[in-house]
């Protein structure tokens, strides 16, 4: 039986089919599906396959429901259910395979140099890692600067590489080696230093939006460029990042620029863009039980507004009763903790509420990017500043989404 979350996530796409043969949204009533699900619990009886972030194994969401096992034991007050979904711009989106469910038991090794082990997210990349044995979790997205392809450089090497290095730095975190502890900007700096020291990546660049969610409910975000995040709370936008750009469609970007390129730029009176982690906007937030965090590349923000993302998330959360309507407004449902629990390591990875939120947003962004009639945020910006371009519809691009659902112990 398919999970009711799958129905909710796919029907969140108002455009229906993303592309002929890509996604077939079920017409089954969400209420009926959830009602049927409430009387059953499913768990996989198959042997657990190793799943490592450095060795990508997409979860199979089509035939399993979410698992309600016991969470990781720690003294932390807050826990996080985190998933990612993604789609390369030149590929069809498959919600069954283009999804990653974070398992805190996963072991994270060094950078993946074999491109076959990377998620099929194109030039976009993401990472999710626990911060060693602490209750904190580090995660983020990076969007490779496509312009490097004109110089024969694969933009994905930088974006995937810096994410791998940040994941490994968080996983191997040693307090004695970090002055003042690990913050979001410090983690971005560590990833940037490591990718610059990697002799196999000679040039490239990316934007980056990096976060550390603490066990005490604190959230620190470092955002550089036009990737970004929103914090949603009970059917409302609570916080949202602002993009950093030098000019229209020219975001701040971390870069590796060969000396030859710098010399050529100087000879012609130009300048190669090179921004640094110190230029990132850093913000601090306090999370609450039931909050939903959405981190995404500009493939999402160019095609969906924050309000549209809120509608998608609200539809799924209310449909799953993770949020519920009451006489006093929207409240957090009683079973949220069960919906987002991490696997205890003894079972195969299976879908969760956060994975269906990530799928729902990615599916809608993919549909919007290919829609030639519905103008998105990028189209409206082009029409405003460059009306002679006659741009309309969406902006086809790589898409990467990381969703975190916040759960407070005892609630």
Automatic annotation (TrEMBL):
Which reactions does this protein catalyse?
A: O-phospho-L-seryl-[protein] + H2O = L-seryl-[protein] + phosphate; O-phospho-L-threonyl-[protein] + H2O = L-threonyl-[protein] + phosphate
Q: Which cofactor does it need?
A: Mn(2+); Mg(2+)
Q: Which GO terms describe its molecular function?
A: metal ion binding; protein serine/threonine phosphatase activity
Q: Which Pfam families match?
A: PP2C_2 (PF13672)
Which residues fall in a compositionally biased region of kind Polar residues? Answer: 52-73
Task: Spell out the SMART domains in the cross-references.
Answer: PP2Cc (SM00332)
**Which superkingdom heads the taxonomic lineage of this protein's source?**
Eukaryota
- Locate the region Disordered: 38-73
Q: Which UniProt keywords apply?
A: Hydrolase, Magnesium, Manganese, Metal-binding, Protein phosphatase
Enzyme Commission numbers on file = 3.1.3.16
Q: What range(s) does the PPM-type phosphatase domain occupy?
A: 109-406
Family note: Belongs to the PP2C family.
Q: What is this protein called?
A: Protein phosphatase
Which source organism? Hyaloscypha hepaticicola
